[in-house]
Amino acid sequence: MKDKLYHSKRYLPELIELEQLIALGKEHIRPAIIGQIEHKSIKLPFYRLELGSNEPVAPTLILVGGIHGIERIGSQVILAFLRTLIKRLAWDPSMHEQLQQVRLVIYPIVNPVGMWDNQRCNGNGVDLMRNAPIDADQNPAFMVGGHRISRHLPWYRGKKNSPMEMEAQLLINDVARTLKGQQHCISLDCHSGFGSRDRIWFPYARSKEPWPNIANALALTKLFESTYNHHEFYLFEPQSNSYTTHGDLWDYMFDDFNHSNPSGQYLPLTLEMGSWLWVKKNPRHLFNYSSLFNPVLPHRHARIMRRHLTLFEFLLSAVRAMPNWQCSEADFNPLYHAALDRWYQNDG
Prior knowledge:
Blueprint: H1 13-24, E1 30-39, E2 42-52, E3 60-65, H2 72-89, H3 93-99, E4 103-107, H4 112-116, H5 166-178, E5 184-192, E6 198-202, H6 214-227, E7 234-238, H7 249-260, E8 265-273, H8 276-281, H9 298-307, H10 309-320, H11 322-325, H12 332-343
Parallel strand pairs: 3-4, 3-5, 5-8, 6-7
Antiparallel strand pairs: 1-2, 2-4, 6-8
């Protein structure tokens, strides 16, 4: 950790901030560089941070940012939460007590090359969220759902039967190791760029068929909506209600978890921040590719930084208390059919 692999504030301020936070929170953060991504004669670190309990089966919350390099705001909101957490640990005994019972794992910048080059894909032109070896059940939207035409076009999946990209494989392998034998776990992957409303997506991305864990997805949705009844800007839904894709990493990781640990409960969520609303309020966003995915004006950026702190804190508490609200055997059928009515009634 002594040797900094990277020093350019111009291109990757998020990495500079991350390393500053690691130093600031050194008493609480267990950092690791689990991979190095080579790019233009330099090596960019793939960081994994861990806080809280050392118990391997402690309830676990995973936060992920920067899978799409252009969507810098995803990494930024995670770093904002991490900074708040570090500051609270300096004075708040209740935060210490909470983290003694929860393991928090953070992958703040999954695609450092994409972020360095201000592009969606990684250095090989591959969209990491289309890169898992999974095909959609039906043909998704042309191009957007993933394709193998050319690395020079957006949403490229990579060559057929090729190994997954290094960044995707690092994330998948480490999440699998982190969740091995786990009974209670939630992950949140932070993105931006779809629609004019913030969405909380759960699998499947590849299929419009009901996800096996929709009863627990509804239980968590109801828990949030009843606890924060004035916090109405999130739309909870399966991703397939918006569009389907090939190669979704969270589809792949959930199936792997469910196969190896069928008694465990895992909810992989995606926060899709609705950047179309920013574009609508400020047409200047249309003249810069990066600003289609990231707020430009300082006051709007500050608003987004604080907007999602409630969600992060809720998920940290929710995973700790998962046995208190998760779907029981007696509740499964009513919750499952209520979830069908809420999210799948238009699918026949």
